[in-house]
Design brief:
This protein has about 950 residues and is α+β, with helices and mostly antiparallel strands. Helix content is about 45%, strand content about 10%. The strands form 9 sheets. Strands 20-22-23-28-25-26 form a 6-stranded antiparallel β-sheet. Strands 1-4-13-14-15 form a 5-stranded parallel β-sheet, with helices on one face. A 3-stranded antiparallel β-sheet has the order 5-12-11, with no helix packed on it. Helix 17 crosses helix 19, helix 17 crosses helix 23 and helix 25 crosses helix 30. The protein is globular, with a radius of gyration of 31 Å. It starts with a helix and ends with a strand.
């Protein structure tokens, strides 16, 4: 905490802190949102943290997960659902379609092998203990059992025992009384009757029976004891698949092989993760129960802001966010109530805007990261990389086609059941429409598949007027108004959403084989997705709305799994762009600084308090790895030569698996970019680098689903790939490839380091609230999780910062530690020279981060409220400069950062001073003549309305100035 405070951090930003599954390393698998996780110290530890934050004037931003919880028996709400089915008071909490299962049960895809095989193998068995009574055990998992289903177990051999022991024997009495309390349900009662709807009172009654059964499990009194008789029954049932099945098939759930999840699971999941079950936050009771604690933490000041995870998974994001703001109303002093600072994890397409009606500060910053990354990609070099990629791999399809193919693959492989259920409902809607009644179900299903795969955004949104139940008169009135209106679009969807639907429908029509009924099918689907029924079907609008709302909850997962978790591991032209929300297509052409400035101005006008980020826990690769790989667009010719050379050198290292060499060309170019981007700084790689690289590559190829996958791993392929990687890194003998790699990495990492500093300055100074991902104030060459969630060496960072502060302040009081001070002394030039010379240790990045964040803390209004003024450079290297000014009253801020440094300096030279020649930054009208450099403490004067870049970059290759 003292280190982060000194660094200039205003708020800690935490993953979820509520009770999660035992041993959770991330907290996103919440099992109880009403308590702070005892594994983290519980509420007492949170109070202690809050007290220390308050003492330092810092705050806490908390990530919360409203969309889902862990589908685990450790979750009391889920356990109640398993025990009672529709009778559970928590049945309404989870998004379950009970009617999709033939006998009205919850399909539980937890088995490694088919149910019959597991039953015969004895891996499913009944167990008992005094704490929880009788449970169904599957390895370490313990599932609750509805008490009435246990009547056959408890009544097993009871008549014989009464004859042997007598009716008055305590064990017999205990069993007989419990069997009687369980009711006289015949053993052949159908599962539908056992699992049908019921009251909460019935569930409470069953809970009482379960407690009695747990007491019986603990009763060891007498000989034989009740527990001994129960154990005999358990052994008999566990030895008989038929008896065991008699109990299991009367549960509100059906244990099934995990492969059924994609096709038959009847509860909404988080993406395709069956261990995470979605919540119905549109239900006020669900919202209240799941947010009681977090709203209290906000109201009492423990939590200052919220990050909303996976907001697109909610049925009604706008309604949820409004309810959240209402729940925290009244924050701040009397008469000065402020809305809660909320950011949403929303991934925007290139031409997409965050819905203006959402009561949030903005997004978590993927859009900013994408825009910033694009600035550093050389457009001419990227075109050369396009040609190189096509020549080397034979891949000629553009990214849009790759995305479509893998979205379609995800829908067919991971969400087959969800899509099938929607297609069936679409057929039901068509049956009520005279014009669509004869459409074949297969054609409707195909049209729905294609439109979902072609949708260019994660999802669309229903307008607020349809969030509440619709009165019988309203649909007809709306239809009448629409008919009388000159606006051809229906009211329920925003114009932007209609444009995305138009694009998806047009592309889907082209991709669907022509047939006599194909146009009619798409016309009908278009009307449904637009919520535009004909007047005679106005009363059907609520059913159409329900269909569209559920479809919208599928399109996001389809995009996430098809794009983020597949296409981004397949399209390997320049993998620094393969990020969530990455610049792979669209209006923000890589290298376009004007687009970056336009986005920043829009952010300043619309979302000035949104988050800006460069690395996150979800990043495919860290900001420093991306910065390096971006350099390949500058060195495209050299990179092409290296690819050809390395391919030839390493051909003999490949193995043939089936009919393919491992790795193929596409995977090989991915691997070489990864090595260049993530190779550790220093003379030798860190001890675990090879292990980390292997783990990453196995994850990458399984996500790509080309040669292997998580569901169908190809062990031979994966072994050949690991062997290839190990041979590349082999130092036992001569290794020409490794020698060449190290030489090339030394060049790329030099340029990449200065680009990373540019990212820091532009992020901190741009409109928004900058997020510094844990530990990335030093060089962080991490890959995707879990690699980017490794422990951070905070002690090292603290030592570095303490030493820098001490040297800076020596002989100058506190001024050297205050870059925003009125008259700070210049930083000792020898210190800055040392940081530049020893750039590999990362202290130069720490220095820039520290000075920039400290300045931001002292000039808060300037950074948060200041206007945004894009600046132009002039001179020899004008294209290599990105600059902007911020102004608030009479205070000014100037950020100047280099890019494409390979055009300016060689890797064995210097990025500083006169290497920039006559390049200068043009200042806006009315700006000050005198400026102070926050990073080196020097004063500069403008000449003819310009500042020379050689002066700005005298000691460091980035500049942050106040005026």
């Amino acid at each position: 905490m003292p280190y982060l405070d000194r660094l200039g951090v205003s708020h800690l930003y935490s993953s979820p802190l509520f009770v999660s599954r035992p041993g959770s390393r991330h907290g996103y698998d919440v099992i109880d949102p009403t308590r702070i996780d005892p594994e983290l110290g519980g509420e007492a530890a949170l109070d202690a943290l809050g007290g220390e934050l308050d003492r330092r004037g810092m705050g806490l931003v908390l990530d919360i997960v409203p969309n889902h919880m862990a589908a685990s028996p450790d979750n009391p709400w889920w356990a109640s659902l398993l025990a009672h089915g529709r009778r559970s008071p928590y049945a309404r909490f989870f998004d379950v379609d009970w009617d999709r299962e033939r006998d009205g049960r919850l399909l539980l895809p937890i088995l490694a092998e088919p149910y019959g095989s597991e039953l015969a193998a004895g891996t499913l068995r009944l167990v008992a203990d005094a704490a929880s009574g009788v449970r169904l055990a599957y390895y370490e998992r313990r599932l609750p059992l509805t008490p009435r289903s246990l009547r056959p177990l408890l009544a097993w051999r009871l008549p014989e025992r009464r004859r042997e022991l007598g009716d008055g024997h305590p064990a017999v009495v205990a069993l007989r009384d419990l069997v009687s309390a369980l009711g006289g349900a015949p053993e052949d009662e159908p599962a539908e009757a056992m699992n049908g709807p019921g009251s909460a009172a019935a569930a409470a009654h069953d809970d009482g029976l379960a407690r009695r059964l747990a007491s019986l499990c603990a009763d060891e009194a007498g000989e034989p004891s009740p527990r001994r008789l129960l154990d005999e029954a358990l052994r008999a049932f566990n030895a008989s698949p038929e008896l065991l099945d008699r109990v299991i098939r009367r549960q509100p759930y059906r244990p099934a092989v995990w492969r059924l999840a994609a096709e038959a699971v009847n509860y909404r999941r988080f993406f395709d993760v069956a261990d995470l079950a979605a919540l119905r936050q549109e239900d006020e009771a669900v919202f209240t129960a799941s947010h009681r604690l977090v709203l209290r933490l906000v109201r009492d000041g423990t939590v200052d802001g919220l990050r909303i995870d996976h907001v697109d998974g909610l049925r009604d994001p706008a309604g949820y966010l409004r309810r959240l703001q209402r729940g925290t109303a009244g924050l701040g002093p009397p008469g000065e109530s402020q809305p809660l600072w909320v950011v949403v994890e929303k991934i925007l397409a290139a031409d997409e805007e965050l819905p203006a009606s959402w009561p949030v500060a903005g997004t978590t910053g993927y859009d900013f990261q994408s825009s910033l990354t694009g600035v550093f990609v050389d457009p001419a070099g990227l075109r050369e990389l396009d040609r190189l990629y096509a020549r080397f791999t034979g891949e000629v399809e553009g990214f849009a086609e790759v995305r479509y193919q893998h979205k379609r693959q995800a829908l067919e492989e991971l969400f087959r059941g969800d899509l099938g259920a929607l297609a069936a409902d679409l057929g039901t809607l068509a049956a009520a429409d005279l014009a669509a009644r004869d459409l074949p179900p297969s054609l409707l299903a195909r049209a729905l598949l294609e439109v979902t795969a072609c949708l260019p955004v994660y999802r669309t949104y229903v307008a607020p007027e349809l969030e509440q139940p619709i009165s019988p008169e309203e649909p007809a009135q709306r239809a009448s108004r629409r008919a009388a209106s000159s606006d051809p679009h229906p009211a329920p969807l925003a114009d932007s959403d209609l444009r995305y639907l138009d694009r998806a429908l047009a592309e889907a029509r082209q991709r669907t084989p022509a047939g006599p009924l194909t146009p009619l099918a798409f016309d009908f689907l278009s009307r449904v997705l637009r919520l535009d029924p004909p007047p005679e079907l106005a009363g059907e609008l609520p059913r159409w709305h329900d269909f569209v709302a559920r479809w919208q909850q599928l399109t996001g997962p389809a995009m996430a799994k098809g794009l983020e978790d597949t296409a981004l591991y397949v399209y390997n032209r320049l993998i620094s762009l393969n990020a969530v929300g990455g610049v792979l297509e669209g209006i923000d052409t890589p290298g376009n600084a004007a687009a970056f400035h336009r986005r920043n101005r829009e952010r300043r006008e619309r979302w000035p308090y949104g988050m800006t980020t460069t690395s996150t826990h979800d990043a495919k690769r860290s900001e420093d790895v991306r910065a390096r790989i971006n350099v390949l667009s500058e060195l495209s010719a050299q990179w092409g030569d290296r690819i050809d050379r390395w391919t030839a050198l390493n051909r003999q290292r490949k193995r043939t698996v089936g009919s393919h060499l491992v790795p193929d060309a596409n995977l090989e170019i991915f691997l070489y970019q990864t090595l260049v981007g993530a190779w550790p700084l220093g003379d030798t790689p860190e001890e675990r680098f090879a292990e980390r690289l292997e783990e990453y590559l196995l994850k990458a190829v399984r996500e790509a689903k080309v040669h292997t996958s998580w569901s169908e791993p190809d062990e031979a392929f994966e072994a050949a790939l690991v062997d290839f990687v190990r041979s590349l890194l082999d130092t036992a003998g001569s290794n020409a490839f490794l020698d060449e790699l190290l030489g090339f990495v030394s060049v790329v990492s030099w340029y990449g380091a200065w680009s990373s500093l540019s990212q820091v300055v532009l992020k901190v100074a741009a409109p928004g609230v900058p997020d510094v991902y844990q530990g990335s104030e030093l060089w962080d060459l991490s890959l995707v999780d879990p690699d980017n969630r490794r422990p951070v060496d905070w002690a090292l960072r603290r030592r570095h910062l303490d030493a820098l502060a001490a040297r800076c302040a020596a002989g100058k009081g506190d001024a050297g530690d205050d870059p925003a001070g009125e008259s700070p002394s210049p930083v000792p030039p020898e210190l800055l020279a040392e940081l530049m010379a020893s750039w590999r240790d990362g202290r130069v990045k720490l220095w820039v981060t520290w000075r920039a964040l400290t300045l931001r803390r002292r000039r808060r209004e300037l950074f948060l409220e200041g206007s945004y003024l894009p600046l132009q450079a002039a001179g020899e290297h004008a294209a290599c400069i990105v600059a902007f000014a911020r102004r608030h009253g009479d205070r000014w801020l100037l950020a100047v950062a280099p890019r494409w440094l390979s055009r300016v300096a060689s890797a064995d030279g210097s990025p500083l001073g006169e290497v920039w020649g006559d390049t200068a930054v043009r200042l806006p009208a009315g700006s000050p003549a005198g400026w102070r450099h926050a990073l080196d403490g020097c004063e500069l004067g403008a000449e003819n309305g310009t500042l020379r870049v050689a002066d700005l970059f005298r000691h460091l290759p980035v500049a942050l100035l106040t005026g």
